[in-house]
Design goal:
The chain is an alpha+beta fold and about 190 residues long. The protein has a domain of about 100 residues: 2-Layer Sandwich (60s Ribosomal Protein L30, Chain: A). It is about 30% helix and about 10% strand.
Length: about 190
């Protein structure tokens, strides 16, 4: 019996080979590099340091604080004398364009008062020239009020012939003296 156990043991142990542990080889798959971000080319057509895609005025050199647009410089108050015909307080049609511009300028200065000073040439009596110069100032005031300027911002005064721009020695000079001057008080 011992021999048979021995034979069985030999048969069993010889037929079974020891199994090797299978080692899995690790397959390394190369990982593609993340694509590098495409560098956006900054375009600044006008060379003001503000990229065109953020520049409101890409064709004009400007300031960053103005979104690339040039600095806005408000022009000073500009006015001219309003001229009148001889013995008349009727506005000339040639004055309308300037009066429209004047209306816009006055609206930009709500804190200011504007003096409308009427003048005349030397023809006629002192009384007539005084009334005529006041009527001229009031004609300008009426135009401005009708275009939205508050009455309280406009002060009129007639000076008659007392303050000529030039001597009343020729018709051309007299025409220059028939005027309303606009004086702002800021």
């Amino acid at each position: 019996m011992l021999a048979s156990i021995f034979a069985m043991t030999v048969v069993l142990f010889t037929s079974c080979k020891s199994k090797k542990l299978a080692v899995k080889e690790e397959v390394v798959v190369p990982v593609a590099e993340a694509p590098k971000p495409v560098e956006k080319k900054v375009v600044d057509t006008d060379g003001d340091g503000v990229a065109d895609d953020q520049d409101d005025c890409p064709q004009e050199k400007g300031l960053a604080k103005n979104n690339g647009c040039p600095e806005i410089i408000e022009k000073a108050f500009v006015y001219q004398n309003i001229q009148f015909e001889f013995n008349s307080s009727v506005l000339k049609t040639s004055s309308y364009a300037f009066l429209e511009d004047l209306t816009q300028q006055i609206k930009k200065h709500p804190e200011a008062t504007f003096y409308l000073n009427g003048h005349s040439s030397s023809e006629g009596t002192d009384l007539r020239n005084m009334m005529l110069s006041a009527d001229r100032a009031n004609a300008v005031k009426a135009y401005l009020v009708n275009n939205g300027i508050p009455n309280s911002k406009l002060i009129t005064k007639g000076f008659g012939e007392s303050m000529p721009l030039v001597p009343n020695t020729s018709e051309a000079n007299k025409a220059l003296n028939r005027r309303v001057e606009i004086k702002p008080s800021f």
